[in-house]
């Protein structure tokens, strides 16, 4: 399956959907995508739903943040997860 061929169809299917209110979300997005794609950051925030634990972090770099920021992403997640004491029941 070619992900790029399905991109528009998949985006249309997911348009307007949000994470459930009881699911905390931590997004890492790239500054490059924020700068080059109008509404990129806002679209991610719109997916949050109504959960005060949600967080969005913009990291300086390209779409492939995990290549450069793996340790930072892991550490940030651990801190966020611990601080939020996510209910896994």
Helix and strand layout, with pairings?
Layout: H1 3-14, E1 26-30, H2 31-36, H3 40-46, E2 55-59, H4 65-84
Parallel strand pairs: 1-2
Question: How far is it from the N-terminal to the C-terminal residue, by CA?
Answer: 35 Å
Query: What is the H/E order?
Result: HEHHEH
Largest sheet: 2 strands, parallel
Rounded to an integer in angstroms, the radius of gyration calculated over CA atoms is 14 Å
Strand content: 5-15%
- Which runs of at least 5 residues are low in confidence (pLDDT < 50)? none
Strand order of the largest sheet: 1-2
The strand count comes to 2
Q: Give the CA-based shape.
A: globular
What is the share of helical residues? 40-55%
Number of distinct helices: 4
Q: Pairing-aware structural class of the strands and helices? A: mainly alpha
**Mean pLDDT, all residues:** 88
Write a brief caption for the model.
The protein has 89 residues and is mainly alpha-helical. It is built from four helices and two strands, in the order H-E-H-H-E-H.
Structure description:
This protein is mainly alpha-helical. It has a domain at 23-84. The chain has 4 helices and 2 strands; from the N terminus they run αβααβα. Strands 1-2 form a two-stranded parallel ribbon. The model has no long low-confidence stretch (mean pLDDT 88).
Considering the chains and any ligands shown, give keywords for the structure:
89 residues, mainly alpha
């Amino acid at each position: 399956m070619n992900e790029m061929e399905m991109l528009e169809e998949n985006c249309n299917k997911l348009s307007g959907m949000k994470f459930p209110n009881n699911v905390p979300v931590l997004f890492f997005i790239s500054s490059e995508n924020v700068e080059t794609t109008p509404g990129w950051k806002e679209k991610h925030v719109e997916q949050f739903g109504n959960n005060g634990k949600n967080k969005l972090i913009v990291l300086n770099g390209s779409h492939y943040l995990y290549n450069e920021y793996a340790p930072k992403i892991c550490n940030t997640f651990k801190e966020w997860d611990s601080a939020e004491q996510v209910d896994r029941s």
